[in-house]
Amino acid sequence: MKYLPDLSAILLAGSTLWAAGPNLMEDPSFEQPVPPFKWQAKENPYKNVKKEDLKGRFSFSKENKIVRSGKQSWKLVNKTMEGRNYISFKPMKCHPDKPFEFKFHTMITDRQDHSYIWYNIYMRDKNGKLSGYINGPNMDIRKNRWNEQVIRIYPAPNTATFAVTWQFCGPMTVYIDDASFREVPHSAYEKTVGKVLHKGSFSLWSESPMCQVPYKGMPKALPAAKEIKLTAAANENESFQLVLTSNKAALSDLSWKFPALKSGKSTIPASAFSSRMVEFVNVTKANDPRARGMIADPLIETPASWSLSKERNSAFFMTVKVPAGTPKGVYKGTIQLQQKGKCIAKVPVSVRVWGFEIPKISQMATFFLTSLHFGKFAYCNFDKRPRAVIMDDIHNLKKEMRISINQALRLPPPKWKIVNDEVVITDWKPFDEAVEKIYKKYNFSYIRITPLGMIGDNAGWFKSPGRKTTRTRSGRHVGAEPPKTPFGGYYDEPVGIKRITSYTRAYLKHVKEKFPHLRPFWYIYDEVPYNHKHTLAKIMTELKKHDPDLPLFIVGGAHSAALPAYQFCCTGLNLRAAYSPGKNHKESIFYQWKNDINPSRTMAARVYAWQVYKANGIGGLLWLTNFCGGGRKGIHNPWTSPTGLYENMHCTIFYPPYQGKGKVVPSQRAWLIREAIEDFDLLKIAEKRLGKAKVEKIISKWIKDPFDWRNDPRLFEQVRIELGDAIEQSK
Prior knowledge:
disordered N terminus; Jelly Rolls; 11 helices; Immunoglobulin-like; seven-stranded parallel beta sheet; 19% helix
């Protein structure tokens, strides 16, 4: 799946924290005879509507009955399935390093379930050259109410003007009114929730895992604390950070000594502690100025001994993994900071363990792709180990994170032969052995229906021998017709369908009997282009006719009227996906998992699981874990050019080995994702025991809907503990 910057963390999260400034737009209430935008009707994304073809199909007019304020609004009508109305606002002046907000209001009185609204942003420098482009998410299409459509962004460097084009796609009658464009303050967030544990020639202080520690110094006026307090279920990870800041001289030969934690006769062993040293990367490419500079993110293995410099902090991301089966109780012990084996500071730790545990395999579906092939093996420029060793390394990190699957992992298929145009399995052994291995070794709980792969993506059908090809964007050759199946025949022909479905019926039956704990799926298409949906729909209909239980997985097929009902839809977590009716799929998985390197949005990585829960999804997807560029934009090393091709690092949660040696390095963002996945299990346990209404009431103090949450680790932790306490008190 091609990655596009997904800005919903910027655009939507914590929206109540933004203050209004002066409106920079001319005629903001649309009261003038000529609107501050241009209108264009289109037959489809590529073809304008001719004037003679507008009548009875498209219209644009003034409206004085349905208005939000003033005396006038504008009415847009489209009565065609593939058509759309565009409105392009005039370029407005802006500048970098400050956030800007564009907002207007829509009233939809008539639409189809598959209709949608989205936008494009074009930023240009003073010479008119494009400085930034954003392909926005789908927006709110709830009917018979004034919906506030809000975009908040930091303009790209050198930007002088901002222009936005809104697209109203599918049959729809919509009224628009009251627009604004304004500079707004930076969003509020908690920079620290730290506490001082020791003060002398050095300061030892704690920090939340949801805050990024500074490269130098410590926050002012931190309160004192006597101990680290954690609360967790059995089989759950809980993390905290310890930071040392030199007040006088540098220190050397430092190390940590971890204790066994005791509660009566029960013990959590010292081996339950793990520690990684926090490293910093120099971020120079970021639209938000708060994200530039030395940013804490990589978590390298803690050396046996280390030094504290006067020039920078020494920070450690620490985790207690409460073993499965640990009895309820408060477990206490003391971490020692040692110098040459002698204790120089103590950190008391208490872990309150709830009387329940989270399951071994997460209830959250997490599709995190890892591929060494991307960008012509771009990652391998910085990790020279054998590729099998690298993949095993990353898969073990995924196991620690409780990730469900690497969708790039291809299992060996069973052996088969063709008999009367049907696929007959002759030997399951190679397949069974591979499935047993990945489940036992990595705990992967979803498996692809091998050898079936995608038959197309957003550029079109994949090329196939014996079929026509056509040239599409970026000069890439793709198929003009659906490709050949792995068993011969084509996907749009009876012989191809017969062979595929005879195989999938046998495959699903075997997996259900042999591996009932696993969920198989066929990732059939990625980001379906509009002009291929009808052909894909015919293929899907035929597949489901012959194999009704076939679990199809599609990225970007949500709410398409053309596609028949299917199992798994992966789509962006946006207003349309969360609120619109008419879903043609059973289960929702959302992308991209937010994991922002920006200190003002570090918490987003932990929040995403809660957003998925609020949107009634079953999981989240990340397009790539080890992105190092490639292609036309070139290769980049995340250690020296961390934001690389994109402003953010959503797709680089794993760094190549530190200084070219050792293993793959997880990020702080990855470890927050790990704990978010455990939060999802907490939510599902609570829902089962308390009911969804009670869960919603508890968590509403912190997260009200998928896009309205407080960027406050303290409040988050209060709600999480209240949720766990409610589970414990339930019968």
